[in-house]
Design goal:
Length: 196
Amino acid sequence: IKTLDSFPQEHTEIDESFRMPVQDIYDFIKSEYKGKIIAGRICTGTLNAGDEICFYPSTRKDIVKKIVQFGETSKKTAYAGESVGLILGHDTLAERGDIAAKSGENCPYSVNRFLASIFWLNNIPLIKNKKYILKLGACRVEMHVEEICKVINSSDLKIQNNKGFVNHHNVAECIIKTNRKIALDLSEKSIQTGRF
């Protein structure tokens, strides 16, 4: 039994920093929950009523007054994997696609330019400087590929540099430029908030 106890325990999503992409915002006038409810699914971590959270990329902060779930009364704590509504103390303006994080924990990056590894599945090639829509969680933002650093041909694994496009089933390292800041994590830290 001592040997079994010595094995490292599996790291769970609850152990990670709190992340909740904002999926929608509801404004209730005639309800026990008057005001705005920020709705989303908790990707990682836990959240307690009374915690201060920050919405990224705007960095607006507020206190969680109540945590609610559809068909239930309010709860004190919510965990990774749960879909919840947050009632805030001051009706802070959040937007669909923002990422909520606890103040004092590791925060997501707020960027409009970043390096990405891409596996291109479309039959039409990915073209440098062409406009596309990037989808990350509930966030939708216009983007273009500013630079294609290298392309790996998936059939022969040859590396090609200085190419202006990425063909079907090829892998590429690209610099992505969005038309406004978005919040994201490194993909090795969080798949839900780091992959698009």
